[in-house]
Write a structure and sequence with these properties.
Blueprint (H helix, E strand, L loop, with lengths): L3 H19 L7 E2 H8 L3 H13 L3 E4 L4 E4 L1 H13 L2 H16 L2 E8 L2 E8 L14 E3 L3 H8 L4 H8 L13 H14 L2 E4 L6 E9 L5 E10 L8 H17 L11
Antiparallel strand pairs: 1-3, 2-3, 4-5, 4-9, 5-6, 7-8, 8-9
Helix pairs in contact: 1-2, 1-3, 2-3, 5-9
């Protein structure tokens, strides 16, 4: 049985953590009133918690403005956490879940300059399936995997990639204006779909992965034979975007209100 003292300690810890989590990319500095209102506590309680966090180096107070922001010790702990992150181990459970639900192959690709490189794969259990060699690379202008990454890169790279477009199949998007429009659509909806564009007999849905610098670093995809690929890709898109978002957040990404969700 928990003691009253123990329960009080847990509640205090929970409240202190809620203060740290109240800071966002849009609200990096706040005053006492703003913090108290955001976490739903009295200002006296909030001030007591802020003082304790400041003493431990987790909160920094600017005495001139009376504004608070996250302290250096949190930055240091964040660096340790970042170095401990392994994108393969973070992604693998999500990839296995997607393959289990779709019965199709799930791949993790990482960005390498203007190429996407296959980094990890969970193969479909079906006899006829889509597989990719680990380490395989291809330009980011081609197919859903590449375009799901490219769409979240600088627009100047979009224009640069239009100069490399070539027809791989009759379905390849190789007309510059249409290509740019497709990238804009992908950026708006958060994922890319291609059927028979890079490989004639393959369908694919892919979503971008971001890291703590808020930049795209790769993508997650599910792909399978064209004859088995669903015309309605909503389920595949939801599975892929949800997993990509969870992986991104594990890597330290925090979506801004006007950006990718």
């Amino acid at each position: 049985m928990k003691t009253a003292k123990g329960e009080g300690s847990v509640r205090t810890l929970s409240r202190a953590l809620s203060i740290l989590k109240a800071f966002t990319w849009e609200e990096r500095e706040m005053n006492l009133t703003e913090i108290a209102e955001k976490i739903g506590l009295a200002k006296s309680t909030t001030l007591r918690l802020l003082t304790a966090l400041e003493e431990e180096g987790f909160i920094y107070k600017n005495d001139k403005t009376n504004h608070y922001k996250l302290g250096f010790d949190l930055y240091y702990l964040g660096l340790i956490a970042k170095e401990s992150m392994d994108i393969r181990s973070i992604s693998r459970p999500h990839m296995e879940n997607i393959t289990h639900q779709t019965r199709e192959t799930t791949n993790l690709y990482l960005l390498d300059y203007h190429d996407r490189v296959c980094f990890e794969q969970v193969e479909s259990p079906m006899a006829i399936k889509r597989t990719v060699r680990i380490g395989e690379r291809f330009p980011i202008w081609a197919g859903a995997t590449g375009r799901s990454i490219l769409a979240f890169m600088d627009r100047s790279i979009w224009v640069e990639m239009t100069k490399e477009l070539v027809k791989l199949t009759e379905h390849t998007v190789a007309e510059p204006e249409t290509f740019i429009q497709e990238l804009e659509k992908i950026k708006q909806q958060g994922y890319a779909v291609s059927v028979g564009e890079k490989d004639y007999e393959v369908g694919c849905v892919a979503a971008p992965i971001f890291d703590s610098t808020q930049k795209v670093i790769g993508c997650l995809s599910v792909s399978g034979p064209k004859f088995r690929f669903p015309e309605d890709t909503d389920l595949f898109a939801k599975l892929i975007t949800d997993a990509a978002d969870k992986i991104s957040r594990k890597l330290g990404y925090h979506a801004k209100s006007s950006g990718y969700e």
